[in-house]
Structures are given as C-alpha cells and as structure tokens.
C-alpha cells in the first residue's frame, strides 16, 4: 500500500484539502490528514500540488504522432482533399512496427500531459491484421496506460481484413484494454460494407467519424437520400455504446436519433479549427440530453488544451461570454470518465475508495483563494494553457516522476524516432 499525504484533491465533483489517499491498483481509503493511519509503502507529500484523476482522451489517432512537422504537397480545396493529400497518404505507408512505435511515442507524451486512458481510432494499409495488438503493446504494456482500440474500416482497405482485425482484437479485452468496431465515415463506406459490418460485429460498439465536414453529409444525401445518422440507424449500428466522432453538421432529427439511442458524440475542437470544417454546437447537444465527450483527434497528446479550446470557442459560437459555462465543460470531462468506466468495466475518474488509482499530481500555488466554488475556474484560467503534471500514476504505478518518464520507456521513445524516419522515407517514394 502507498499513500499521498497533504493532498488537495479535485475530481470535478468534490474538492477536499489536506487529505490522505491510500492506494495500490485501486484507491483504498481517503480522508483528512488528522485521521491518517500511516503507511508502510511509498509516500508522496502533495503539499503545493493539486491531485486529480488522470485524463481520458475519448478519441484520437495515435499514429498522428509521426505526422508532426511533416511536409507534403498540400493545397486542399475541401475536406476530402485533406484526407487524400495528407492522412490517407500517411496511413497507406504504416505497418505494424510503425504503428507500435507511434503508440510508444504518443503514449509517452500523453503521460507527460496527465493522460492515463486513450480511445484510439487506427488506420494502416500496409498492415491491417495484428496492428491493434501492436498498439496495445505500445500503449498498455510498455507505457502502462489503459487503451481502447479499433481499426478504421473503409472501402479503401481490404474489407475482410478490417472486419477480421476488429473482431479478433475484441477477444483481448481486459480492465486495461477495450475494443470497438472501427469505421472511417459514411462517405467511404458502401451499402454492401455497412450491411456486412452490421452482420459481423455482434455486440461490438462502433467508433466512427460522423458529419465532420459538409462533404460527409452531402455525399450521404446524394447517394442515399438520407443523412449520416439516419443511414447508420437504418443499418442498426447505433446503441448506447456507440462513439460518434465530431458531429459538427447534424440536424435536429439526427440529434434526436442519437439521443434516442443514448449514443455519445465526441467533439474535437482544435482539430475542427485546424481543418476549418466548422465547430460543434455542444451546448445544443447538452440541452437535448445528449452525452458529449471530448477528444483531440490526434492534434496533440493531451486533453487540457482541448478543454480550453472547447470552452473558449463555444463562447464564440454562442456569441456571448455566458453562453457556455464551467459547468458545461465539467459535464464533458465527467462524461469522458463515464465512458471509460463503461468501456473498461471498472470505476474510473473519482478520488474515492474503489476507483482505479489513475492520478496526476500537478504543482500549483495560487495567489488567489482556491476553494470548491472556484477550483475549475483556476484550471481553465490558470492551468490548462500550460498543463505539466509533476507525477502521474496509472493503475497505482508511477509512470511519470518529477516530470520524467521511466528509463525503459525513454529508450523505447528514442527508438520511435528511427521508426518515424522510415515512415517519412516511404512517403518520399514515388
């Protein structure tokens, strides 16, 4: 058993000062320091620090770690051009080894941003079979995090291999590993493909991009005379575990269908701004009782910057400084934890007995009052723009100590540099 002492704890529900936390892989006891029973294991003094649950990224693309700084001919006129000229060129050259090393690189950086759980959406044309296990090895086994994985089924890939990879990986689920059935987007999925997926996936929930751009909706309307969510519903693909990514260009009927099935939308504000595809009306979704989560779409390896981006851009969308509040942001953060709890079937996201010991400790000595009424405001206006935890624990084990990852992971991270160079060299080939 280990202990945190003199901890100021905040889990987006409760705020408690001068606490102790006893833990191993699970949190075993929490209470005021006056009742601290002592501990014969390791002890971390949390004076001058905030203790929070590790962040959950509800949607990302781990392989995007190897796109940073890449320069390819790029003159997009629409969103499909962005895919054709950049992302589909990259994933066409990815094999299992590159997928693995991208997971190590992404996971190591995620740790340094306080992330302990990742929901990934993978694509790789050179290797399909076995890539999800490669990602699992990088994220879960070598970085020590929790990961949910799926392969992005698309008509541009071998359909049977995509189905086989998603279904085979589903057999590897544990309290650290979750599986989804990955789908790219309606525009790259034929009727025959969706019928086959619907028949083959069993109870595996889908993880799919929806209405990220108007191109996706316009293609669906032109080909099928229905909108994206209506099409997924017709194929029986929506349920309470579905992850619907982006959801920028949805109408009222589509939102009603999502609410009916109790599916989740995962918004990715920084990526949407970068691609200039629009911005999701999160407040409208929340007002309609839709569960909304927050991802980063591979733009970075953290979540704090996405929290800040969502908060500020939602105010701009609402054209009022009070159109999107701290409690609205809190709902998305808590929904990320609810998603992880559902996916891994273990309590995640609170600093309470019985919850997993996925925790981050960040230095913070405010020069204004800090209390239960204003703590989230301190995060938004004083911390999210430069989020650098000092320590991170995943499953009760230290994965970041004094801002440093472990020596073994650091060595693997160095090897990932060579793997990224192989990918870039492939992209130069004619």
Q: What are the salient characteristics of this protein?
A:
430 residues, alpha/beta, Urease, subunit C, domain 1, TIM Barrel, 2 domains, 39% helix, 20% strand, globular
Tell me what you see in this structure.
The structure is a single chain. The protein is an alpha/beta fold. It folds into two domains: 2-53 and 351-408, Urease, subunit C, domain 1, CATH 2.30.40.10; 55-344, Alpha-Beta Barrel (TIM Barrel), CATH 3.20.20.140. 39% of the residues lie in helices and 20% in strands. Strands 1, 2, 3, 4, 5, 15, 16 and 17 form an eight-stranded mixed β-sheet that branches. Strands 10-11-12-13-14 form a five-stranded parallel β-sheet. α3 (131-142) links the parallel β7 and β8. The longest helix is centred in the last third of the chain and has 22 residues, at 407-428.
Topology:
Layout (H helix, E strand, L loop, with lengths): L1 E9 L4 E9 L3 E6 L10 E3 L3 E5 L1 E6 L18 H13 L4 H17 L2 E6 L10 H12 L3 E4 L9 H11 L7 E3 L1 E5 L5 H10 L5 E5 L3 H11 L3 H7 L8 E4 L5 H10 L2 E4 L1 H7 L6 H6 L3 E4 L9 H15 L7 H19 L14 E5 L11 H8 L8 E4 L2 E4 L6 H22 L2
Parallel strand pairs: 1-4, 1-5, 6-7, 7-8, 8-9, 10-11, 11-12, 12-13, 13-14
Antiparallel strand pairs: 1-2, 2-3, 5-15, 15-16, 16-17
Helix pairs in contact: 2-3, 2-14, 7-8
């Amino acid at each position: 058993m280990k202990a945190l002492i003199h901890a100021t704890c905040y889990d987006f529900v409760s705020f408690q000062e001068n606490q102790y936390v006893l833990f191993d892989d699970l949190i075993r006891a929490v209470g005021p320091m006056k009742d601290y029973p002592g501990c014969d294991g390791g002890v971390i003094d949390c004076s001058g620090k905030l203790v929070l649950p590790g962040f959950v990224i509800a949607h990302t693309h781990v392989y995007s770690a190897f796109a940073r700084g890449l320069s390819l001919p790029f003159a997009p006129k629409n969103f499909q051009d962005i895919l054709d000229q950049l992302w589909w060129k990259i994933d066409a050259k990815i094999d299992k080894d590159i997928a693995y090393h991208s997971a190590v690189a992404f996971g190591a950086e995620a740790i340094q941003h306080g992330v302990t759980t990742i929901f990934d959406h993978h694509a790789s044309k050179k290797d399909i079979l076995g890539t999800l296990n490669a990602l699992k090895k990088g994220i879960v086994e070598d970085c020590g995090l929790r990961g949910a994985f799926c392969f992005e089924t698309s008509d541009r890939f071998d359909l049977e291999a995509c189905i086989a990879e998603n279904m085979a990986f589903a057999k590897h689920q544990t309290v650290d590993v979750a599986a989804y059935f990955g789908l790219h987007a309606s525009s790259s999925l034929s009727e025959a493909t969706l019928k086959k997926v619907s028949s083959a996936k069993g109870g595996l929930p889908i993880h799919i991009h929806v209405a990220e751009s108007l191109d996706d909706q316009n293609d669906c309307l032109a080909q099928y005379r229905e909108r994206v969510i209506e099409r997924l519903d017709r194929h029986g693909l929506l349920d309470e575990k579905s992850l619907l990514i982006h959801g920028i260009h949805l109408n009222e009927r589509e939102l009603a269908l999502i609410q009916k099935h109790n599916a989740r939308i995962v918004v990715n504000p920084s990526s949407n701004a970068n691609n200039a595809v629009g911005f999701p009306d999160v407040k409208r979704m929340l007002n309609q009782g839709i569960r909304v989560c927050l991802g980063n779409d591979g733009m970075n390896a953290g979540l704090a910057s996405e929290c800040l981006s969502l908060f500020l851009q939602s105010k701009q969308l609402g054209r009022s400084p009070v159109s999107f509040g701290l409690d609205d942001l809190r709902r998305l953060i808590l929904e990320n934890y609810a998603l992880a709890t559902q996916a891994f079937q273990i309590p995640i996201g609170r600093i309470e007995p019985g919850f997993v010991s996925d925790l981050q400790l960040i230095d913070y000595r405010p020069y204004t009052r800090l209390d239960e009424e204003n703590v989230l405001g301190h995060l938004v206006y004083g911390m999210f723009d430069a989020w650098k935890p000092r320590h991170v624990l995943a499953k009760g084990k230290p994965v970041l100590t004094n801002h440093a990852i472990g020596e073994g992971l650091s060595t693997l991270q160095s090897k990932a540099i060579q793997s990224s160079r192989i990918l870039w060299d492939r992209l130069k080939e004619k």
